[in-house]
Amino acid sequence: MKISKEQKLETQRKIVSAAADLFVLNGFDNTTMKQIAREAGVGDATIYKYFANKDKLILGFYDTRGADALAEYRNTDDLESFTFAEKLQLLVDTFLEQLMADREFVELSLKQIIKSPITLLKDELEVAKSYKQELTTLLSNLDHDEAYPDIPMQGMLATLLTDYILGITFYWMKDDSKEFSNTTQLTDLSIGIIDSVLKSGFINKAIDMAGFIIKTHLLRGLSSGGGLLNMMQEFKDTLAKQ
Question: In sequence order, which residues have a C-beta less than 8 Å from that of residue 168 and are 6 or more positions away?
């Protein structure tokens, strides 16, 4: 009997959820594919039709959660009436909400990715491709908005904004503030900066600055303290004076 696309997606969700629970309970190295299959309620051979190994399961977790987050984003009521900044905020919020229940696994998996980046990140994540496509569409739609000048290098900027969402995720993982208030503040500040940059017209310098912030600070997850927030606030204040 042919399995529908939705049935396949549901099986993937069961498998990655089972893997997340077992990795947290037993550790990555002490969890077997057979244990995951049994926890997910699928056959020992079936699991390999979806994921070749445990590394692929980690990536599959993010692909599955990201796909669900994008679906939630796209199904938002009156989405077309949202501003660019509101849509970007919603993309960040829905992604983090999808990860929230498995935050302990997210922390474990990111450590595993850092431990074996060449193995795990040699191929681009499907979720990254999907977010780039969505962000490219958002940027393209700004061509019809008089509040924004022509935006060059939209493909590159979409890639940078995808990295930005990943960077916020790293920051969120380090955030021990009450109800992740520092992450909320950082997201608000940074999206305000991004929106101001796009409206200001000096996109080339802004891409260099944003790339520095994201690659040097966010993706490394160095700190969730006030230093990065202060730098963001100063940069936003500078933009406001332009």
Answer: 92, 96, 183, 186, 187, 190, 218
